[in-house]
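Posting for a labmate who doesn't have an account.
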Amino acid sequence: MYLNKILLKYVQNVGVFTLQKKIEKIEEFLYRETKKRGFNSVVFGLSGGIDSAVVGYFCNKIFKDNARAFIMPSNYSNPKNTQDAIRFAQSIGLYYEVINIGKMQDTFIDMMQLSNDSSNLHRIGNFCARIRMSLLYDKSFMHQSIVVGTSNKSELMLGYGTLYGDLAYAINPIGNIYKTEIFEIAKKIGIPWYIVNKKPSADLFKGQSDEADLGYSYTMIDKLLKQIDNGLNKKQLIENGFEREFVKSIKNRIKNNKFKSKTPKIAKV
């Protein structure tokens, strides 16, 4: 019994150490990569979700007054997310601006009506994601800052994001950290409960959630992604207890969206 307690304490301490090490690496990465590119300040989007809150915390810690957050709600955004983003920024003394993209969204929907496709919510969501990134790059030019991304490793492996939208940035401090690990880091650094306990959502339209889109919880997905990342094939994954349809669904998503992680192909002429 005593030996089991020692082993449990050892495992817990290793977990804490690993988590702390990741936090230190995030901080080192942000500072080093920003300076390496000749910048002293950063800009990023703050949505009211956990990923951008974690990135916002680190940007604020490292760059202080030289970190700028931009909250960019559309007409379809949940007002609570905007309120949470503002509340979080104020709680840590983070500079923020709110830019409502509703008018740009309306103009796009008017254009869509000409092709009788104005009810396509994912198309509208992708447009809003690209507008947000366009605004961030404009702000980066205005403030001579670098654009920091907020996509985690789970999203990047699955291709769960908008090309030239939320997947566009200069550097990304959490791109090698799985979604479930983001929750652990968030709790460790003190991200508020009203953000940590929120159901993950890209907030592209009313009622949208990541796990509903993906068909599985991040807890399930990350367990599988870690083994895929370690090189296990479909047969080995099924032998390890994952259901065949689950493996097929996730591997197909990874394969079909792999193009999102590649730079544009240039013709050899």
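Reply:
Got it, the structure tokens are right above this. Residues 25-261 form a domain with the Rossmann fold fold (CATH 3.40.50.620).
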